[in-house]
Design goal:
The protein is α/β, with parallel strands linked by helices. The protein has twelve helices and six strands. A hairpin with a 5-residue loop joins strand 5 and strand 6. The longest helix has 28 residues.
Length: about 300
């Protein structure tokens, strides 16, 4: 799962800038310029379950701290942070941990191995600010022959923390790039890079990104498709209306109702005609209602002209 940004468009932009500047400063100076000065453990699995697993809050805290300290431009000082360093705080939560037996591919039933599968949430924010970057990562580790199962669980937690931190590092790298490079990253073979590129372009609202974002509406990764829809909703360029209408034909139910509202927000004569059709004849009542509401709002806002604004 890719990292999520919380706190609204303005705070998200500020956080992206802070993280990018932190990474750049560290790379340019040769010394870390950002310091993780605190990691708290949020509610995830119940304390009773953690006790059963033999995992304490300190285990989670240290796993998160190690993973973040490994990010370019970051450190986790044991005493006072470097003078002038940008200070960050983190929150970690263990959401799932289960011991399962998985068969070896093409092997007999008795060849199944036990492994720990975990889901871990990692949140990073500039100290004193409410906006944050968060990633939820899955990881699995097999229990080695003769090994204490808890050792594999600890490795799985470490792996999930590293994976989450790596996603945050990708976000840092993407936020540093100019628009042209971010647009080029929409064609990356790595779905995570495409996802972060869409997020950055949504925040920047550059009209030059509309056509490349429209192409992501057919991305093989459904998360990237959803993110592209959101980006086009933020940019509100009328060129997105027809592709979004086409997407409604490939989806159903609540998703279509959401698309209907987005198309209404963008506006323009094509959007108005589409909403009229949906309001009058879509088979699902929720979609008809969404279309009626979007149509009324579009007309109240005067967004029915050629510019769609």
């Amino acid at each position: 799962m890719a990292a999520a940004w919380h706190g609204g468009r303005g705070p998200a932009r500020a956080l992206l800038a802070a993280l990018a500047l932190a990474a750049l400063a560290g790379c340019r100076s040769g010394a870390p310029r950002s310091a993780v000065v605190g990691v708290s453990v949020a509610e995830g699995l119940p304390a009773s379950r953690l006790a059963e697993l033999g995992i304490g809050p300190e285990d989670l805290r240290l796993a998160a701290l190690r993973s973040l300290a490994a990010l370019p431009g970051f450190e986790a000082p044991s005493a006072e942070p470097p003078r002038g360093a940008r200070l960050f705080r983190a929150t970690v939560a263990l959401l799932e941990a289960r011991l399962v037996r998985r068969p070896v591919a093409d092997g007999p039933a008795e060849s199944a191995v036990s492994r720990w599968e975990v889901l871990l949430d990692l949140d990073l924010a500039p100290a004193g600010e409410s906006s944050s970057a968060r990633d939820t990562a899955r990881w699995a580790e097999a229990v080695r022959e003769g090994e204490e199962p808890r050792a594999a669980l600890r490795r799985a937690i470490d792996g999930a923390a590293r994976k989450a931190a790596a996603s945050l590092a990708l976000a840092l790298a993407e936020a540093e790039k100019p628009d042209a490079q971010v647009i080029a990253d929409l064609e990356s073979g790595d779905a995570r890079v495409r996802d972060f590129a869409v997020r950055v372009l949504a925040d920047r609202r550059n009209p030059a990104a509309v056509a490349p974002l429209v192409a992501r509406l057919r991305d093989p990764d459904p998360d990237v498709v959803d993110r592209a829809v959101g980006a086009l909703a933020q940019i509100r360029d009328p060129r997105a209306v027809e592709p979004l209408i086409d997407l409604t034909r490939r989806r159903e139910g609540p998703y279509v109702a959401q698309l209907v509202r987005i198309i209404g927000d963008i506006g323009g004569p094509e959007a108005e005609a589409f909403l009229q059709t949906m309001a009058a004849g879509h088979p699902e009542p929720a979609v008809r209602q969404a279309a009626r509401e979007a149509l009324a709002e579009l007309r109240r806002g005067g967004r029915t002209g050629p510019a769609g604004r």
